[in-house]
Design a protein that fits this description.
The chain is mainly α. The protein is built from nine helices and no strands. The protein starts with a helix and ends in a 7-residue tail after the last helix.
Length: about 230
């Protein structure tokens, strides 16, 4: 849990401090590995500080959950959204909706069925993900040919049927991408709404986040000095 929280809250800032890029897979892996090593070291050598951090983190996370907003909206480096970016997001949602609807119609049953079954009939949580992957693959392999046969019988065109068959998987992937974009935009709108309605709580969140970042910075310096590293490099 702590590592996941650090990746959300502190990873980008740490990467910048170390001169690394999280967009680079090697750098991203290095930062994550460093976070894991540091957390393990603090668990072994400074458990009281781990408890202190956990207390602040839990308080911060509870307030985030209460307001139903994401940490990223409180990050000064990523929270600035221009008017043009909002406009692009709205245009994307409107223009791409027909493609989303097409993908949804063709993929909703094989996508939902494994999840419905796993939620109601799979007993152990550890088995849910593997079962969904296996059953989902089988259902798609059965469902897609049925759709293609129905489409071919309705159109009687080999070319259109071939194009339709090629579109099934990409359109399904697009549905997930579209949903994520809409969800992110709704989160942004919610943050703006909460900011104007509950400014005091937002300022409290920002204060708590700043305290967490400051605490992590002090831990970083302490850890790097202890390990013989130079935090200034």
């Amino acid at each position: 849990m702590i590592v996941e929280a650090l990746e959300r809250i502190y990873k980008q800032e740490l990467a910048v401090d170390l001169g690394l890029e999280t967009d680079n897979k090697a750098d991203d892996f290095s930062v994550t590995k460093g976070l894991i090593n540091a957390v393990e070291w603090y668990y072994e050598n400074e458990p009281l500080k781990v408890n202190e951090f956990n207390g602040k983190l839990n308080l911060y996370q509870r307030l985030l959950n209460r307001l139903q907003i994401k940490d990223e909206f409180l990050d000064p480096a990523s929270s600035r959204v221009t008017f043009w970016e909002r406009t692009k997001a709205i245009l994307y949602i409107i223009i791409m909706f027909p493609i989303y609807l097409y993908g949804l119609i063709n993929n909703v049953i094989p996508y939902k069925l494994p999840r419905w079954y796993a939620r109601h009939f799979v007993q152990h949580k550890a088995e849910v993900a593997p079962w969904k992957m296996l059953s989902g693959t089988i259902i798609f392999l059965i469902y897609y040919p049925i759709e293609i046969i129905i489409f071919a019988s309705l159109t009687g065109s080999f070319i259109w049927t071939f194009i339709y068959a090629l579109s099934l998987i990409p359109s399904g992937n697009f549905v997930l991408q579209y949903i994520n974009r809409v969800r992110d935009y709704r989160q942004h709108l919610r943050f703006i709404s909460v900011f104007y309605k509950k400014r005091t709580l937002i300022y409290e969140l920002i204060k708590q986040r700043t305290e967490i970042i400051d605490l992590l910075n002090s831990y970083k310096i302490e850890y790097m000095n202890t390990m013989g590293l130079n935090p200034e490099k």
